[in-house]
Structures are given as C-alpha cells and as structure tokens.
Amino acid sequence: MMPRKSNVETSVQVLNKHAKSFSLGGFFLPKEVLLDAAALYHFCRYCDDVADGDLASDEKITELKDLRLLLKNPIQSKENQAVHGFHQVAERTDMNYKYARHLLNGLEKDQKPVFIEHLNNLIIYSYEVAGTVGGMMCSVLRIRDQRAYDFAIDLGIGMQITNICRDVKEDFEMNRVYLPQKDNTPLSIQSGLDQSNVMDTTKHALSIAHQYYRSGEKGFRFIPFFARFGILVAARLYEAIGTKLLKKHQANPLHGRTYLNSLEKSFVIFKACIEFWFLWVSYFFTKMPEHDSILHKPLEGYS
Question: DSSP letter at 296?
Fold first, then answer.
C-alpha cells in the first residue's frame, strides 16, 4: 500500500525544499521510486532536524531514543508522518532496519562536542549519517544484488565528507570538528580556525572523498537502468561542489558555503548525459567490479 497522500505530498515538499541536488537527480527517476526516495529523505531529514534542533542536548537525546522506539513499533508511528512513511517504504522494499539504527548512532554523537581525531572515526561517522542512506537507497531502488551495498555505502561516505568540508565554519561554531589533520590529530579550535591549516586539512579530506566516489561509481552498474541516470546526476552534482571548493576556493571552506549556480548545474548534467551512455556501453566489455575491502576496514566489527 502506498503512503497516504498527505505523507507523499509532505515528503516530496521536504525533498524539493532541502535537497536541491537530490531532487534534481530525482527528476529522472520513475514516479514510484521517486516517492519512496522522497519518503526516505523525509525520514532522514526529520531525524537530522531533531538532532540539530533548538532543544537542549539531553532533550534531543531523548527524542532520538523515542525515534528508536518508533522504529521498533510501526503501529505507534502512525502519528509521525516521517517515521510512518519510512515504515511503509521499508516494508514495501524489504529494507534492513540496521541502517536506520546506525543513522541514529551518528546523530546521537552530534549531541556532544565533536572532535574527530582519526581518519577511521571520520569514515565511521560518515557511514553512520550518509553511508547508511546509500544502503537504504539500494532497497528503494529494488536492488537485490548484495554486492551493490558496499559501493552504495561508499558513495554516501564520499558525499558526507564533501558536506563536512563545505561546512567546516558552521560546524566549528557548533563545537563540531569532524576533520582530522594528516597526522590524525583534530584541528585546533582553541584560538579559532587557522586558514592555512584548514585548507590543507580540507584538501586532504577531499582526496579521501575522491577515493570513495570512485568506488561508489563502480556500483552504478548494479542500479536498474531506469534509475541509473538519476543517481548519476545526483552524485555528480554533489561531487562538483567539492571540486568547486577545491579549485575555485583553493579548498578554503572559511569563505562561506560553496554551492553550484544554474549554469554549473546544467554543465554537470550535460556531462552526466555523455558519461551515462559511455558507462552503459563499457559494462558490456568489463567484468563485474570487486569492492576494495580496505575502504571498509574502519567499519569492521561495527554493529
């Protein structure tokens, strides 16, 4: 059964308002898949809004714990459009609920000052708040080949690292330092952010993101043909933000939030059109990809 009309309308509105790159990519998805993706985004956005809301930290932790309970009880979630819509999508697509639980793990970490000291911790956090979304999107796209999940998770990790690099200044103001330096020590914030240090650290993080993007794109061949272009567009639009931050702003996120203008988005989509057909043809002449297990070494033993 499809979600109630009010759920669908609300989810699509949330997607269009808060995720322009994803909603633009979603334009190319079949309607049923787009609605399920919108419901998933609505749930993730709702969880994020709880985590970053105006309540005191202890109250937000309580709210997040309540969300865990709602995940366990679909009946009780009916009064919450975001969670109820997620349950309907999860049931319809046979989604593994572990990804939603892991997402909440990451959001709970944000309720205390964050000082990530090691690259492994950055990868774990990026998995929790974004790689998990890649895993859930596999279900939304009706992908049954389990090999696809590792690549989808990598794409989410790459996107999240890009997001972190873009928002260093805003996160710093909230006592959140997600980027470790090359020597795996956290950025020093005692006397503010040193521009040179931040630029070097951001450049290094974007190089890490690049590795995860390249792994993620290997998994495009697992995506059903009808949805592949939409995901490709969303991924390339997001990666282009990191590229612009690196090349135009010399990896300096302190200048302000980096975004793509309409002309830049159009150019990215044009290139994605060419890449889409090139990738499609290449799949006839290349072997199925193997995932680089080194990329998930930080996640070993995670539960």
Answer: G
Domain 113-303 has CATH 1.10.600.10: yes
- The answer on pLDDT for 177 being more than 50 is yes
Residue pair 239/163 in contact (Cβ under 8 Å)? The answer is: no
Within the chain, which residue ranges are assigned CATH 1.10.600.10? 113-303
Strand, helix or coil at 190? strand
Check: CB of residue 242 under 8 Å from CB of residue 206: yes
CA 276 – CA 281 distance, rounded (Å) = 9
Angle at 217 between CA 215 and CA 220, to 5 degrees: 130
Within 8 A by CB and 6+ apart from 272, the residues are 229, 232, 233, 236
pLDDT digits (tens, 9 = 90+) for 123-164: 999 999 999 999 999 999 999 999 999 999 999 999 999 999
What is the residue whose two structure tokens read 């090139």? 278
How does DSSP classify residue 28? T
How many residues would you count in the chain? 303
Overall pTM surpassing 0.85 (yes/no): yes
Task: Name 155's Cβ contacts closer than 8 Å, sequence gap at least 6.
Answer: 134, 212, 213, 215, 216, 217, 219, 235
What residue type is assigned to position 167 of the chain? D
